Amino acid sequence: MNWQQQAVQFAQHHHCQHTPPVHALDLVSEVGELCKVWLEASHYGTITPQYPPEMAEEFGDVLYSLCLLAEACTVDLDAAFQAALVKYEQRWQAKGDIGSHATLDN
User: Fold this and answer.
1) Would the pTM count as exceeding 0.85?
2) Which domain holds residue 9?
3) Does 45 have pLDDT greater than 60?
4) Burial class (CB in 10 A: 0-12, 13-18, 19+), 3
């Protein structure tokens, strides 16, 4: 069973499924919590951070929220991830960079 399926099974069992907008807001909230741990660990960018153990917990929360948002939007995360890797490889082969940005050469 993949991560998305595990998250959905847990959410169904505990009646935690919501509409896509609710899951999207939850995901943004969890990403914010992850970033806060990062900011605090780096003293707001003044030192190289030593990542605390709770950072792993926040990554888990982000992943869980992402899985539920994908499910609510009927997106298969495994398929979406594989498609993203193909897209990035094609960009790398074409221009030596995986970004979608235009070059800033003037």
Assistant:
1) yes
2) 3-75
3) yes
4) middle
Q: How many domains does the chain have?
A: 1
Residue whose pair of structure tokens reads 């169904």 in the numeric block: 12
Domain containing 9 — which CATH number? 1.10.287.1080
Alpha-carbon torsion 22, 20, 25, 65, what sign?
positive
DSSP of 42-62:
TTTTTS-----THHHHHHHHH
Task: State residue 101's pLDDT score.
Answer: 78
Query: 96 lies in a domain?
Result: no
Q: With contact defined as beta carbons under 8 Å apart, do 80 and 69 qualify?
A: no
Q: Which of 13, 8, 20, 18 is nearest to 63 (CA)?
A: 8
